[in-house]
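Milestone M4 deliverable, item 7.
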Amino acid sequence: MSKLKPFKAVYYNTEKINDMAKVVCPPYDVISEEEQADLENLSPNNFIHILLGKDKPKDDKENNKYTRSKKTYEDWLKKEILLQDEKPGVYFYKQEYKIQGQKHSRLGFISLMELQDEEDSRVIPHENTHAHAVEDRLNLWRSLNSNLSCIFVCFSDQQRKVEKIFTKHVVMSQPMIDVEDNDKVKHRVWRLNDPVLIEEINGSLSNQHLFIADGHHRYKVAMEYRRSRLGRKTNSNGTEDFNYVMTYFTNIDSRDLQIFPMHRIIKNLPQDLDFLEDFFRIDRVKSKDELLIYLARAGRNEHAFGLYTKEGVKLLRLKNKLLIEEHIKEGSKEYKSLDASILKYLVLDRVGIKSDDIVYTKDLSEAIDKVDNDEADASFIMNPVKIPQLKAIALNGEKMPPKTTYFYPKVLSGLTVYKMD
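Output delivered:
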């Protein structure tokens, strides 16, 4: 099994940073170019200056976005804008937020997780990675010799042992970080240094599978970095810093573990979609709000998604589940039964939609607006993936279609850094 390990986190010095909201940022892979510019202008100490550099025309091996990030990182450490804890610990992390006016609260903790060879590991990914993104993050990791952002892992804790430790021993203490982001999500972090309690947490995760919810590229980078370091080392005792990755853990059994749907915006869609009637029952819907109600209701027992074009809103419901086995020849039963798989094989592949013509978004308004503004021909509105589906597909060793899940809220970057000495 992958063991946990406390670590001496690097974090912002609140005596020098008056407003934490100006220095933390989202994970690098959800930051648009426009948002990147806004974050850079928000503060010279925003974490974006380390996390996501920009290429420049005269870049070379000695001066590039990775070396600039390293210089900034080392400068902040020297000036004590960033501090490193004196004692190793784990860091409880609570996020409070609202969805459609309803309050939610997700509890987790940040620790190091031991990396193992794939054949020995019980860490289960569910999405494919892209080589270019892995190479980019690996270059940054090597330059800074630090792990800047957590991977996001789910574990099972039906008895809520970790939550009970937090409630009994941690929550009454002063948080080391307390910040609210632009989405009105409140983020609070507490440190726990007690080795006995940390071992209790470790024991609660023993002998179980750990599911990667978010950060598949970061996990791949950590594995590649470990592999390269082991290749240059004659003897490894397994305790070297490169054998671990900074990880956020949360309970997969929690009701507050939210997965948002990822809608598909199609830039160019052929006009002739008459074939859809061969596979789907098609109902016209008055509005997007009404669509969400009908879509959620259909999703309980059927395979369904919405279609928005200039002609209006439609609800598509698969006529017969036997069509799945007849027309989708790849993957397990669980993989074939994903709404995203049904959309891909029965619709998008059939009309020759290429990956470059698809834009993914969790924002329903964006999916609608792109069509209304003539930036896209259509949008397919999806239901969220269910946790049992994620677990089943991951345990099968399969990967979902790209951008199938969006776990909310995201784990902020700039809360903790794992500095490898």
